Amino acid sequence: MDTEALTRVAVAALEDIKGKEITVLDVRPLTSLFDTLVIASGDSTRQVKALADHVEEKLKEAGAAIIGTEGERAAEWILVDAGDVVIHVMHPAARSHYNLEELWGAVARERAAA
Fold first, then answer.
1. Which residues contact 75 (CB under 8 A, 6 or more apart)?
2. Which of 26, 36, 114 is nearest to 80 (CA)?
3. What is the distance, to the nearest Å, from the Cα of residue 51 to the centroid of all Cα atoms in its chain?
4. What is the domain extent for residue 7?
5. What residues form DSSP beta bridges with 23?
6. What is the DSSP annotation of 82-114?
7. DSSP reduced 3-state for 28
8. Domains of the chain: total
9. What are the two backbone dihedrals, phi and then psi, of residue 48, each rounded to the nearest 5 degrees?
10. What pLDDT band is residue 64 in, cutting at 50, 70 and 90?
11. Phi-psi region for residue 75, left (φ > 0), alpha (ψ -120 to 50) or beta?
């Protein structure tokens, strides 16, 4: 399954159960570890867990291999690693604190300036 298809499945799964502020970042120019970051928020730790579980389930149904997941216990920030696509499902407080969009944007700006 290609990166675009994986991304579509992940985003659709997040939308299915009301993921919020879904952001897709193409990070191919920045790293060779993966191609795309998908970041979404859930209103509560219960919803964060449900979103991550649903994404993992839908990706598996589509034939994707899940390399691993992290953060299920606390459910403030759960990472689902599907190889070329990495999905971060975050509680709004964690998302605001870590601000991944700005972090990856700052890397892009630094590389552009170099």
1. 45, 46, 48, 49, 52, 91
2. 36
3. 11
4. 3-113
5. 39
6. -SSEEEEEE-HHHHHHH-HHHHHHHHHHHHHH-
7. coil
8. 1
9. -55, -45
10. very high
11. left
- Give me the percent of the chain exceeding a pLDDT of 70: 92
Region of residue 42 (left: phi > 0; alpha: psi -120 to 50; beta: else) = beta
| Cβ atoms within 10 Å, residue 57 | 12
Burial of 48 from C-beta contacts in 10 A (0-12 / 13-18 / 19+): buried
Looking up residue 68, the CATH number of its domain turns out to be 3.30.460.10
> How many Å apart are CA 35 and CA 31, to the nearest integer?
8
Q: Yes or no: say if 52 and 41 are a contact pair by the CB < 8 Å rule.
A: no
Residue 71 tokens, joined: 């953060």
Count CB atoms within 10 A of the CB of residue 113: 6
Residue with more model confidence, 28 or 9: 9
The two tokens of residue 27 are 């990070």
